Structure formats: structure tokens, C-alpha cells
Amino acid sequence: MEDKVITHWKGNSQFESDNPSGKTLLMDTSAEHGGYNSGLRPKAMMLASLAGCSGLDVVSVLNKMKVTVSDFRMDTYGELTEEHPKYYHTVSVEYHFYGKDLDEGKIKKAVDLSIEKYCGVMEMFRKFAKVNTSIHYHNK
């Protein structure tokens, strides 16, 4: 299986990329680096991809286990190297679950399955970064 993404330069520091879904996104950099700050930053999109990939897994597994949560979010942090080329050497993903009487055992199992088995983006990150994860339960 192969994905194809086409990225067009839009002038200055802006680029627009398509996606196999047909959607597009705009990438840019800050004004201090010559951009307009009008789009997503490429490295930060990697963190969003990691969270999105794992989040899709977690929601799918929780649905199969018939576990309900009122809200779910992931806070993802990346620490860049000091020298060029700068890349994330350490990444942390915090899983936050909100609800009443949360089934912590099943939620942990869903997160663990994503981290250890299903999330391909997580596996890619492990090739170049130390990945830390934590789960936070917010019972209402």
C-alpha cells in the first residue's frame, strides 16, 4: 500500500499539501522565520499525526469494548534537538479521559493496544525518539 501526497509551493514560506482523502492543508512558518504564520507547522503536524493515529485506535477499541467516556483528549509534547537538522528526540503523549465512573482497566487496555500494537505513527516515532506515555483519568 502506498500513500501519495502532493505539496505545492504557494509563495514565500507557504506550502499546500493534499491528502489521499482529498482534503488539503496549509503549512507555513512564523514571521520571524520568513513566513506569514498562516498555516500549520510541519514538525508540530507530526505530533498531531501521532495523537490522531493513536486516538483513532483508542476510540475504536473503546467502542468495541462498549466503554463510554464523555470526553477524551491527548496532549502531545516534543523536545527538539539543539543542532540542525532539528528533530524530536523525546516525545510525550498524555491521554486524558473524562467521565463518570470511568472503567480505568479497559481504558488502559485500549491505550496500551494502540501504543504497543496498532499505531503505526507511534512505531515510526520510536525509530528516532524516546516516546513517553501517560494516562490521566478525570472522574466527574
Explain this structure.
It is a single chain. The chain has 140 residues and is α+β, with helices and mostly antiparallel strands. It has helices at residues 42-64, 104-118, 120-126, and strands spanning 7-11, 14-18, 24-27, 71-80, 88-99, 130-139. The protein has a 3-stranded antiparallel beta sheet with strand order 1-2-3, with no helix packed on it. The protein is elongated and about 50 Å long. This is OsmC family protein. Pfam families: OsmC (PF02566). InterPro entries: KH_dom-like_a/b, OsmC/Ohr_fam, OsmC/Ohrsf.
Task: Name the descriptors.
140 residues; KH_dom-like_a/b; three-stranded mixed sheet; alpha+beta; three-stranded antiparallel sheet
Write a compact overview of the structure shown:
This protein is of the alpha+beta class and 140 residues long. Helices cover 32% and strands 33% of the residues.
Can you list the strand order of the major beta sheet?
1-2-3
Structural class: alpha+beta
* Rg measurement, Å: 17 Å
SSE topology string: EEEHEEHHE
Shape: elongated
List unreliable stretches of 5+ residues: none
Question: Largest sheet, described in full?
Answer: 3 strands, antiparallel
Question: How many DSSP H or I helices?
Answer: 3
Query: In whole angstroms, how far apart are the ends?
Result: 43 Å
Annotation, overall tally of beta strands: 6
Mean pLDDT across every amino acid position: 96
**DSSP strand content:** 25-35%
Q: Helical amount among residues, as a percent range?
A: 25-40%
Secondary-structure blueprint:
Layout: E1 7-11, E2 14-18, E3 24-27, H1 42-64, E4 71-80, E5 88-99, H2 104-118, H3 120-126, E6 130-139
Parallel strand pairs: 5-6
Antiparallel strand pairs: 1-2, 2-3, 4-5
Helix pairs in contact: 1-2, 1-3
InterPro entries: KH_dom-like_a/b, OsmC/Ohr_fam, OsmC/Ohrsf
Pfam families: OsmC
Organism: Gelidibacter pelagius
